[in-house]
Amino acid sequence: MFYHDNELQYEVEVEEPDPTFARALQQAIGGVEGEMRVANQYLFQAFAVPSDQQAYKELLLDTAAEELGHIEMLATAVKKNLRDTSVSLGDISSDDATGLASIAGMQPRQYLSGGMNPTATDANGFPFSGNYVVASGNIAADMVANVMAESTGRLLATRLYEMTDDPGMKDMLAYLVARDTMHQNQWLELLTELGDSEEPFDVLPIPDSFPDAEENEEFNYAFLSTNVEPTEDPEQPWTTGASPDGEGEFSYVRQLDLDGAPPDVGHAEAETYNDPTPRDEG
Question: What's this protein's family per the entry (predicted)?
């Protein structure tokens, strides 16, 4: 069950409206790095958590609800940045460089589809896609995906921060950067708790419940070099020494030194009509 509060989670102020920045902010709403992605990701991950792991479910739901609040903050920022924006070239003189740049830089769908309001799209007007959402049912895999999502989200927020000189926008984005810092750390903490707390990589490889005996152990810790030039083991941390999960030793193997196998793929069934030969000549 969700409840709505009429106040924003954090103050959103815009001193100098900028329709070009309003377009950029759309990426943080409906883009692959955006808040719609993480809000839905955490919701669907929470729906899969078993009842005896209620603390994990509450953590995911709390953060999902917070991300919904971030969407509201960003939508408010978009709307304020579109304030008093002209949408007609007839209203702008030919020597008004700022006005012309304003129309050229805005996202047309914010006007055409939204009536000068935010939309559920990225900065290019592409609709949000549920394909961005990762909810695998394996909480360890999901936490790794969440760290990545918060990392790219924080990266986007820092780039947006550099794009604007508006004090209010910088303040809002500094807050969002800070929340992404927390979220990265809380997902890492949960990931660590899933295994031995003294071994941060104890849950690796994911899923660690697959029987070791069923895995091809000749290649499970082998770095395969696909370089066509003859090269020796560079003795990097990922080609020699113990693996982070503590279950194997890295090795270095050149793919060209291994025996390959022919694909040996036959023809499809006649009912597919893949054969280009005319029937009367077959």
Answer: Belongs to the manganese catalase family.
